[in-house]
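From the shared-data thread, chain only:
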Amino acid sequence: DGPRLVSKVVNGECVSKPRDEYSVLDRKKLQMNAKAIHMIFCVLSPNEYNKVTYEGTNQVKESKISMLVHEYEMFKMHDDETITSMFTRFANITNTLKSLGKSYSNIEMMRKDLRSLPIAWRPKVTAI
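Structure, as tokens:
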């Protein structure tokens, strides 16, 4: 049901309201929250957005890091992908990892990027 913007007190404890109990004011709060999130998403670049968004609990953070490390390790250029889009995808993975506290050195990232290129790029990779 989204963030705890809509809550009520039950037995001295604050709990989320079920949707069928939302008032007009509750719906207005949720609508304003959605608009604010949308504006943040539209204004910030993906790298900046990762820095300011909610990371969740440590368990959620570790899960995200684990998933992104797996993506990083399995990273390959797709057949129908340009070098620019591949590098952008790679940068998004590494920047998100960095914002979560896991980073790789520039040399490690460069080597990984070069290894992810298809066989057709071998002469260029060897030259580099």
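The chain has six helices and two strands.
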